[in-house]
Design a protein that fits this description.
Helix content: 40-55%
CATH architecture of the largest domain: 3-Layer(aba) Sandwich
Bound molecules: adenosine-5'-diphosphate, magnesium ion
Structural class: alpha/beta
CATH class of the largest domain: Alpha Beta
Shape: globular
């Protein structure tokens, strides 16, 4: 099976399009997020210039959008501070003004040369009895012939104008072919949607404001296609995973009972419930593919330990995999006293184990001496053979994609998989990332936690906050200080963080810095020194390693808090408040905050419920926040906006499940069309699955 030929043109390089050459192709690619024609077609307009109505000045009605050819007669740059720049112009019927706020004089003079004719478009307003247009679109008369009557406006980047985009787009639109319909006919009809090719053409020829909205029929159809491709992939993965029979773990419960005695606390109801769900999965012959979702500190580790013991009780091995060396070591440290007390043998294997040590560890894993294996992804690399791996726990999933989940479970036959994530993501996002899994939720915290006091601080007040920190540090507090990477230039960002690091070091002495450019081992070392108390402050440019547990850390400072997604802020805040001491989180923002921004940050002051925060975050920021989604590692969508298309996602999920139930190899007529859809969205993994049969 290979890509259907109808898609070939869409997968051609952008340089095959008019106006895109070797020089600007890179700019295009950066703007579009991809190098092919389809990436351009998926670049959707955000506005349009309407040139359908061209009255004379005298006839131009108040409030209408018009396009007129006029002659520039005079410029009056801001006569007084605070007043706009006005340009007078005329035609045979009368005079009018063009009005610009905060505009550059040079730019306006270039766009509207005195005594020359130009074509302007915009909404006419009457001001003190005279017509004017604020911030008109301007085109030179030389372009009259090529001006589009309705010109869609696209997101741009320096070096790529709307004109070049339109030119290339005209070429790209010609590359669209009719494709077989992959939608269910009844559903398509019920939604009132048209065909794929028509929708893709129409989305680039908007004729009203309404058509620009994600709720429009055209955009809904395209969004649904994308969501269906996503859900179909996950359903296929799920189906293939489940086809291999799992094992039935019916241990006698002896080790689990011992662990319950060993731990100095009672399990919360949420922990009990999740554990029951896991044990039920493990006892059944179908493979477990379960996500354990719980906020930082909700007590996932003990649940994972119980699940692993359920496998060990039957003589099988269990593994737990963390995303970093330091987290793996932390798991080992947490589990050691418990496992030792029960006489369960374990090994810790990470990329750092080399030579003889590694050999010994590998042997213990292979001959079954190790009952539990703790480590990083090193535990499922080539060369690691398990005696009998029965279940695997993957901690902090968002670093591991679907692909890695599969790799690990290939290490044993029918390995039961439990994925743990501390990212409390909204239900809709859970579906897009984990639609192939069943979900257990730890939605209740262990008792006795002191809420973290959260404060919003303006950047101007940073100095007095630092003075306050000095006192806290003297009393033994440790501080995380986050300087996010947000600028276009990583170099500049890093410089900002290094500057902060220098300032703090002059103040406090024992300060460390971790950033994305460091090698993992270097990062780990700095964090280990912070954990050991050799450093008082840890400055970080990237999100601090999820899950690092330093109970003495009681203060979290986050600069440019307004640039983070709420869930990320919440997760960062979760690094503190882990010991008995009162903890604080300072959300430092710069400049005056808008209403929405204030509302967003205030949510964090009001609640520590990660799930609630995640829902609100999605509502408030919509699909607009790039940083939040990108850094969370969740799938990003080109056409779908999950804050609006949540219902479509749910429908796509049901659709996908039904399809795979009825036609798991996508052999039917619709199945074949759906394969084209998978190719369209480059769901390579799903296609591989189909091919492997
Ligand atoms: P997570 O991995 O979900 O962030 P952990 O498993 O590290 O959370 O648990 C956080 C802390 O809470 C640990 O010190 C753990 O021993 C403790 N803990 C877990 N469950 C309970 C409980 N039911 N009651 C009291 N403390 C608990
Ligand atoms: Mg944890």
């Amino acid at each position: 099976m290979s890509r259907p030929f109808e898609l070939d043109t869409l997968f051609r390089a952008l340089t095959t399009l008019p106006g895109v050459g070797p020089r600007n192709a890179k700019l295009f690619e950066k703007l579009l997020g991809g190098p092919k024609v389809l990436d351009l077609l998926w670049h959707l307009p955000v506005d349009f210039i309407d040139r359908r109505f061209s009255p004379t000045i005298a006839e131009a009605p108040n409030g209408r959008i018009v396009t007129m050819e006029v002659t520039v007669t005079s410029h009056s740059p801001n006569p007084r501070k605070g007043l706009p720049y006005r340009v007078k112009c005329k035609d045979d019927s009368g005079v009018m003004s063009l009005v610009f706020f905060h505009a550059h004089k040079d730019w306006i003079e270039k766009q509207l040369p005195d005594r020359e004719n130009v074509i302007i478009s915009g909404k006419v307003e009457y001001y003190q009895g005279n017509p004017q247009i604020v911030h008109p679109d301007i085109a030179p008369v030389a372009e009259r012939e090529t001006l589009e009557t309705v010109e869609p406006i696209y997101p741009l980047t320096a070096g790529v104008t709307n004109k070049t985009i339109r030119k290339a787009m005209h070429g790209a639109l010609g590359f669209i072919s009719k494709l077989p319909e992959w939608l269910d006919a009844a559903y398509k009809k019920q939604q009132g949607w048209g065909d794929w090719d028509g929708a893709l053409e129409a989305v680039h020829e908007p004729e009203s404001e309404k058509e620009l909205l994600p709720e429009s029929k055209i955009r809904q159809r395209l969004a649904y296609d994308e969501l269906l491709a996503n859900q179909l992939t996950l359903s296929l993965v799920r189906h293939r995973q489940r086809r291999i029979n799992g094992r039935t773990f019916n241990g006698d419960g002896s080790l689990r009972a011992k662990l319950k005695e060993e731990i100095p606390f009672e399990l919360t109801r949420a922990q009990e419930r999740s554990l029951l769900e896991i044990e039920k999965d493990m006892a059944e012959p179908a493979r477990m593919l379960r996500l354990l979702q719980g906020d930082v500190g909700s007590g996932k580790t003990v649940v994972a330990a119980m699940a692993m013991l359920a496998a060990v009780e039957t003589g099988a091995q269990a593994a737990i995999m963390a995303p970093t060396e330091i987290l793996a070591r932390q798991h080992a440290a947490t589990l050691k006293p418990w496992l030792d007390a029960m006489g369960v043998r374990f090994v810790t294997l990470t990329g750092r184990d080399k030579g003889k040590t590694r050999e010994t560890l590998l042997q213990q894993i292979e001959n079954g001496a190790a009952q539990i294996i703790i480590g990083t992804h090193a535990i499922f690399q080539e060369g690691v053979e398990f005696a009998d791996l029965g279940m695997a726990v993957i901690d902090e999933q968002h670093r591991f994609g679907v692909h890695q989940r599969l790799q690990l479970s290939s290490k044993g036959t029918g390995v039961d998989v439990l994925v743990m994530t501390a990212t409390p993501i909204p239900r809709t996002l859970t579906l897009t990332a984990y639609g192939d899994m069943d979900v257990s939720k730890l939605d209740e915290k262990p008792p006795g936690r002191k809420p973290v006091e959260t404060l919003l601080i303006n950047n101007d007040k940073l100095d007095s906050m630092v003075d306050g920190l000095a006192r806290k540090i003297q009393d033994g507090s440790r501080v995380y200080w986050v300087c996010p990477l947000v600028e276009e230039s990583e170099v500049l960002d890093l410089a900002a963080a290094e500057e902060r690091f220098d300032i703090l070091r002059q103040h406090f002495g024992k300060v460390g810095l971790v950033h994305g450019r460091m090698k993992p081992a270097e990062k780990d070392e700095v964090m280990a020194r912070f954990a050991a108390g050799e450093l008082n402050i840890l400055v970080a440019t990237t999100v601090i390693e999820v899950g690092v547990n330093v109970p003495e850390a009681t203060i979290m400072v986050i600069e440019h808090a307004e640039r983070f997604g709420l869930s990320q802020l919440h997760q960062l805040r979760g690094r503190v408040g882990r010991g008995g001491e009162q903890s604080y989180c300072f959300l430092v923002y710069s400049g005056p905050l808008g209403e929405t921004a204030k509302e967003r940050l205030s949510i964090l002051r009001e609640t520590e419920d990660g799930f609630l925060i995640a829902e609100k975050d999605l509502q408030l920021r919509g699909g607009g926040d790039i940083l939040g989604v990108k850094q969370s590692g969740l799938p990003a969508f080109r056409l779908a906006d999950l804050s609006v298309h949540g219902e479509l996602l749910a429908a796509a999920r049901d659709d996908a499940r039904l399809i795979i139930e009825k036609d798991p190899d996508l052999k039917s007529e619709r199945g074949k069309a759906l394969t084209t859809l998978l190719y369209l969205f480059e769901r390579d993994q799903a296609i591989q699955y189909l091919q492997s049969g």
